[in-house]
What does this fold into?
Amino acid sequence: MSTSNPTPTSSPSASSATTASETANVPPKGISKGISDTTMIQLKEDLETMLLYAINHGKIINTELNPLIESNNLDDLINAHNILSKNVAPATPKSIRYLKLLCKDDDKKSIFQRLPIIRNLVILAVLFLIIFIGTSLSSEVNTQSLSEGVLSNSGLSLLLNISFLCSISGLGVVFYLLKSVSEGVQQATLKPEQSIYYVALIVLGLISGLILSEIVSSYDQGKDLSIFNNAVLALIGGFSSDAIFSILQGIINKIKSIFSVNSPN
It folds into this structure.
């Protein structure tokens, strides 16, 4: 009498659980587990961009980069990127590509077409200069009217004096920005999105120059104040608007820290 061993059958619940676990381990179509090929290509292009920039500008290049750049391993490429970033600092791959685009040989384009920010700053400088000359020719703008400040002055005299101070502040901030743009081109740190920052800095320079000149003009009722000192303060406020903002922010942080020492939070 022969006996047959029963064949073990898997339960439907066990097979469905196995299928679900296998499906969970398979990545969806179009999505890889590691870094994408596009990112790898961009990483290698950044390495080549920084390496060419370092060679052309006489930067010191670490010899340990050779095996790292030739490798296709992600860790090696990231280490090479970190080393080259230190070699070409403060430049970045994005700013280097932007500078290469600006310096591209094209006889049909002038510097104003290649770099619109310079054109806009030059136009603003001419505009502020015209306002400065026009308001300074008026008899309403003098030492006495400037010393009166905003609270004691009114009418056309107030408008002309504020325009006079704002034009000087504008000249100061444009002077600073033109110098900053020229340094950015020389050091390959200029980026296209900085134009938004420059617009905000121009407005900040006008405000800081006007506030700084008006604060001093109201001190001791404007005694012993000359038009030269008032104009210089407006110029300093426009040129160093970023520094003045940092100083005011530091004062606010100190005041906040005093009141937050005993705070329960």
Remarks:
- Residues 111-256 form one domain.
